Amino acid sequence: MERPAVSPRPDPVTATPVLSARTLVKRYGSRTALAGVSLAVKAGELVAVIGPNGAGKTTLLSLLAGLAAPDEGEIFGPAGKVGWVPQGAAVYGRLTVRENLELFAQLEAVDDPERRVAEALAACALEERAAQRAEALSGGLKQRLNLAIGLLADPSVLLLDEPTTALDPRQRDNFWSILSGLAGAGTAIVYTTHLVHEAEQYADRVLVIADGELLFEGSPGALAAAVGAQGLDFEQAFVRFLHARGH
Ligand SMILES: Nc1ncnc2c1ncn2[C@@H]1O[C@H](COP(=O)(O)OP(=O)(O)OP(=O)(O)O)[C@@H](O)[C@H]1O
């Protein structure tokens, strides 16, 4: 696959936040899924959200995406400019790649749908697959279509829930090339993953969440340093960190 050109991306240290949230709380009945999480994401920044099963990662992203409302706290974001890439591709198998994009563009009432569909196809290197039915796509291509749908509204922030879990290493590499290109062009990217080396490899900043609480925010190296695990494999450092924090 041809890699997209990567332009120098905004410096995430100095860039302006494009999305921020203050003390988000979300409860499901008596269960507190998020217990007061705050964050700020800047243009061109790649942020990984990692944590054990049930930590609240998907809940956090769904609030940031505006799919659910927090019980407490506030979100400040670019209205209508947050792209959402859910874990499973919610595409229509019997429609082609292009038809799926046209349908979602219509459902989301995006401006200039024809141009946006063309741009989303190009951004995800799907032009040659445009006429193929979605049900005939490989897992990697289906996930690229899922991403293309998330890009239709030309979002300045893209939220992805475990985007590469089901992909083989080559498709994963392709997918990260696309995301790196988008970050290079200034899109802020927030993703959850259980493949924690993807946090180490690609994220500028890592958020560690467990039991609905934000336990750490910083670079992958700083997470390892926080538990004296420099030089250890990042996954081992992460497990050591969780253990040290009682998880
Ligand atoms: N719709 C819901 N109704 C009730 N409880 C929910 C709902 N969604 C999530 N929860 C609960 O909220 C908590 C956080 O769930 P969430 O899916 O956000 O975690 P996660 O970190 O994404 O987990 P995983 O890594 O397993 O995907 C869990 O205890 C989960 O069971």
From TrEMBL:
Source species, domain of life: Bacteria
Principal place of residence: membrane
Subcellular compartments: Cell membrane
Record-level GO BP terms: response to antibiotic
GO cellular component: plasma membrane
Membrane topology, from the record: Peripheral membrane protein
Molecular function as annotated in GO: ATP binding; ATP hydrolysis activity
Alphabetical keyword list: Antibiotic resistance, ATP-binding, Nucleotide-binding, Transport
Ranges for domain ABC transporter: 19-236
Keyword Repeat applies: no
Family: Belongs to the ABC transporter superfamily.
Protein name per Swiss-Prot or TrEMBL: ABC-2 type transport system ATP-binding protein
Species whose genome carries this gene: Thermoleophilum album
